[in-house]
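Translate sequence into structure tokens.
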Amino acid sequence: MHDATLSSRHRLSVGWARHGDEVREAQRLRFDVFAREFGAQLPTSVPLHDVDRYDDFCEHLLVRDGESGQVIGTYRALTPSQARRAGSSYADSEFDLTPLAPLRPRMLELGRSCVHPAHRHGRVMLVLWSALAEFMTEHDLDTMMGCASVPLHADPSAAAGVWNRLRQTHLSAPHCRIAPRRPLPLPGDGQLRSLDVEPPALVNSYLRLGARVLGPPAWDPTFNCADLPLLVRMEDLPARYRRAVANA
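Result follows.
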């Protein structure tokens, strides 16, 4: 595990989990957001925690409220060597990643991103992404890949509308496109073209980082969401995310 890097400004601190109790804090926040807020039916081995088999192989990034010490934001990160030990990455279960094979030796998989509803402002995401950029530099990684979820419980057609917009504006180069193993059912092309939905805030934050959409969304029935596969290259990451930890 990595020593915590602290940020006193804005009363936030950020660091990597150093022991199991800190991982449990991240898993409790994930359960609160994914299950209690968004209604995911999580097959967890620990009550009131979101736990899956990849957690034991991942690094877990935590943002805490500086006054209460409560974990208010988290990411988990799977390095190429950790993915080899795990036998696969989480994204492998949702997509055929064969086209990304040339990138995988230096590709970090990100997942389970969530922020406490009372703290969903830009500072939390800035601190998280700054720490991730620092981690990428330290480990000589140049690509980040993960899935951005679009909830289906409120408007089942929203994910199709988001995909229709992004396929026109942020689609990756053809040689990087991947196919979902369980595709989200989409309307015919004529109806799809009529849908235009503003992406969720988290998706927009990825796009501001230079993210590209790798293909159509997968359907995740456990989380009742559509997962859009996204890829970010370090060379496209704005410099302010690299500087933020040092300047916080």
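Note: DSSP finds seven helices and ten strands in the chain.
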